[in-house]
Automatic annotation (TrEMBL):
<dbReference type="InterPro" id="IPR009057">
    <property type="entry name" value="Homeodomain-like_sf"/>
</dbReference>
<dbReference type="Pfam" id="PF02311">
    <property type="entry name" value="AraC_binding"/>
</dbReference>
<keyword id="KW-0238">DNA-binding</keyword>
<dbReference type="GO" id="GO:0043565">
    <property type="term" value="F:sequence-specific DNA binding"/>
</dbReference>
<dbReference type="InterPro" id="IPR018060">
    <property type="entry name" value="HTH_AraC"/>
</dbReference>
<keyword id="KW-0805">Transcription regulation</keyword>
<protein>
    <submittedName>
        <fullName>AraC-like ligand binding domain/transcriptional regulator, AraC family</fullName>
    </submittedName>
</protein>
<dbReference type="InterPro" id="IPR018062">
    <property type="entry name" value="HTH_AraC-typ_CS"/>
</dbReference>
<feature type="domain" description="HTH araC/xylS-type">
    <location>
        <begin position="192"/>
        <end position="290"/>
    </location>
</feature>
<dbReference type="GO" id="GO:0003700">
    <property type="term" value="F:DNA-binding transcription factor activity"/>
</dbReference>
<keyword id="KW-0804">Transcription</keyword>
<dbReference type="InterPro" id="IPR003313">
    <property type="entry name" value="AraC-bd"/>
</dbReference>
<dbReference type="Pfam" id="PF12833">
    <property type="entry name" value="HTH_18"/>
</dbReference>
<dbReference type="InterPro" id="IPR037923">
    <property type="entry name" value="HTH-like"/>
</dbReference>
<dbReference type="InterPro" id="IPR014710">
    <property type="entry name" value="RmlC-like_jellyroll"/>
</dbReference>
Amino acid sequence: MEWSIYTLGKASLNRSTTYLSTNGAAFTIHYWGVMPKHYDIPAHQHSFFEICYVIEGSGTYLEDTRAFRLETGSLFLSRPERTHRIASQDGLFLLYVGFELNEADSVEEWHTLLEKAAACDSIVVALKQESIVPRLWESLLLQAAESGGFLAGRILHDLAAVLLLSLLRTFVPEDHREEKPAQAQSASALFSQAKLFIRDNLSQPLRLSDTAAYLHISGRHLSRIFAQEWGGSYSDYVQNERLQTAAALLKTTALPIKTIAETAGFSSVQYFTRAFTLKFRTAPGLFRTLYADAKTLSFQVQDKIKTL
C-alpha cells in the first residue's frame, strides 16, 4: 500500500479518534503516528505508553541499559518514565500510537493490567505480517482515510479500541493464552506532541534541535509552529513550563529548592532563583511560604492575575 494512504488515515485519526471507551476502560490517545523513514532520535521519556510496529527496516531500540534488535514485523513497547530511544541507519517504516489510561473512568481491573504492562519484561515481540495486530492497524488506517460520517466515526472508534486492546494483550497475555516469544502532520498535532515531549523531559536541556529531531522536523519549522500555535518562541515556552512546574512543586511538596531547580531543568539554584523572581516577582522561598497552604494559587505577575 502507498504510505501516503497511511498518512492520510493517521491525520484523520488524530482529528477524530483521541478518546476511547470500551469494556470498562477509558483511554486518552495522545497521537497516532506514521513515519516512513524513522532515523535516530535523542533519548527521552514519556509519562504515557507508546507502542510501535515496524512495517519495514531494521534498527535498535534502547531502553535504559538494554538494547533490542528491531526488524520488519517487530512490535515494541515504550513504558512510562523509562528513558529510551530508537536508532536506525537506513530508516524504519513505523506505525505508532501514544496513549494512557484515564484511571478515574476505568474499573480496577484495567489499573492492574496497565501496571503489568509497565512492569513487563518482553517489550519487543516479533509478529508475522498475517497476524491480527498488523491487519487491524492497516484496516484502521484504511477506514480512517475514507470520508467521514456517523457510522464511519463509530467504526473508527471500535476498530481503534480493538487494536489498542490487541496491542496490550500482546504484552500482557491473559492467563489462558500461551505466551509467544518475545507525511507531514498538522501544526497543531506537532505542537501537542512537542508539549508532551517538553513536559515529560523538563530535567533535560531541551534544545530546539533535540525536540525538532524527536518530531522529525527542522528547528526552523518547530520555531514557526510555536510562534503560530503559542504566540511566542520555543525557548520562552520551555522556560515558562520550567517555572510553572517549579511553582507547583514549591506549593505542593517539601522538596529542597535545589532539587526543584534540577527537576525543572535549571542548571543552578542561582539561575533558577533569578528566573523565578523575575517572572513571579517573589523569591522561591517566600513564594512557598505565601502559597503552600492556599487552596487556590493566585498571584500578581506583570499586572495580570495568574492561577496555578
